[in-house]
Design brief:
Order of helices and strands: EEHEEEEEEEEEEEEEEEEHEEEEEEEEE
Largest sheet: 5 strands, antiparallel
Helix content: under 10%
Strand content: over 45%
Number of helices: 2
Structural class: mainly beta
């Protein structure tokens, strides 16, 4: 059984008209979907974050992934690992190539690309490539808890620096970056972007709702790989402050456990799955990333949400893809079958509100 995430193309033009409601017509994108089914052994993964590596290269980051033991593409003969990745060449996925990567354990079986530390594994968050510089990747620390709850527990986050991201990923040299502060119960890196001389990241707290806050790191020590712990600031009611001794202000009352956040004409766009199980794909808008943010507005309902025992989650926009004029690609990874399938959607202003595709 193949693991699938669904892809959509959504036209962004009409979304700039804040007072108007949107009629959204999702358009499947099977030609692009085929790109993510091209490897004989990589059967799928969840999370599905994309990072612009510059030029024509896009990095894809996947969480729990099924990697087959042979080329029969049978999930019954596969291993699930905590993370895998892929590098796409070409921004239009209908014409691009892609190469998937994982590690190989001593016994020859597939293993996570970013290896486990004992019973701690790593799920991907977002990241950023500094121009002509290192690749910075945020990751969630996950502890295995067999027989307890969902079988895992979240234990914070880490920041990884890849010094040579232009090379083949199997030749990457990477290491964890020490930071001088970690919010007591937060995960940082759900969405990441550059703001002048800082890398800014969306963090979340809680477990439904996942309250969103902002943290930032100066680029200069990241680029120089300076010695010592990396200072971190958080956004507060009085502006940016040292994370040590200051509580961050919540800027999104529910950012979602996974989401995307990117600049658009007139401000910022936050895309996420709304609800649980049978979710919708929703967005919020804001003039400034610090808020205030609009209320969530449903864009469309993925068809998987109407299936039997639906569990559709973690919708994200992927603006690095060439989705055509006025469009953006959106992915919705479902469980228990994680691998991207692709679709398109188109929006227009309407007084009737969202409709399902």
């Amino acid at each position: 059984m193949r693991a699938r995430a669904a892809w959509w193309l959504w036209a962004t033009l009409a979304a700039c008209a804040a007072p108007a409601r949107l009629a959204v017509e999702p358009e499947p994108w099977p030609a692009a979907d085929a790109l993510f089914h091209s490897d004989p052994r990589w059967l799928g993964g969840d999370a599905v974050y994309s990072v612009d590596l510059g030029g024509d290269r896009i990095l894809w980051l996947f969480g729990d992934s099924f990697v087959a033991l042979d080329a029969q593409r049978d999930r019954r003969r596969s291993v699930m690992v905590r993370n895998t990745l892929a590098v796409q060449r070409g921004r239009d996925p209908t014409r691009a190539t892609i190469a998937f990567h994982w590690q190989t354990a001593d016994d020859g079986r597939p293993a996570a690309f970013f290896g486990d530390d004992g019973d701690i594994g790593y799920w991907p968050l977002h990241g950023i490539r500094l121009p002509n510089g290192p690749l910075l990747l945020f990751q969630t620390r996950v502890r295995n808890t067999p027989g307890k709850g969902l079988g895992f527990a979240i234990e914070g986050w880490r920041l990884v620096r890849v010094d040579d991201p232009d090379r083949d990923p199997q030749q990457w040299r990477w290491r964890e970056v020490a930071t001088d502060a970690r919010p007591r119960d937060g995960v940082i890196g759900t969405a990441v972007w550059r703001d002048e001389e800082h890398v800014v990241a969306l963090g979340t707290r809680g477990n439904g709702p996942h309250c969103g806050f902002l943290a930032r790191f100066a680029i200069d020590p990241l680029r120089r790989d300076a010695d010592g712990a990396l200072p971190m600031q958080v956004w507060t009611d009085t502006g940016w402050q040292d994370a040590n001794g200051h509580e961050p202000t919540i800027v999104l009352d529910d950012a979602g456990p996974e989401c995307s956040l990117d600049r658009v004409p007139g401000g910022w766009r936050h895309v996420h799955s709304c609800g649980f199980g049978a979710t919708t794909v929703a967005e919020r808008r804001a003039r400034d990333v610090t808020g205030p943010w609009s209320a969530p507005r449903d864009l469309f309902t993925p068809p998987q949400s109407r299936g039997e025992r639906p569990f559709v989650y973690a919708a994200k926009a992927h603006p690095a893809l060439d989705a055509g004029p006025g469009r953006v690609a959106i992915a919705t990874p479902p469980t228990p079958s994680p691998s991207p399938t692709c679709s398109r959607s188109r929006a227009s202003t309407s007084s009737t509100g969202p409709r399902s595709g």
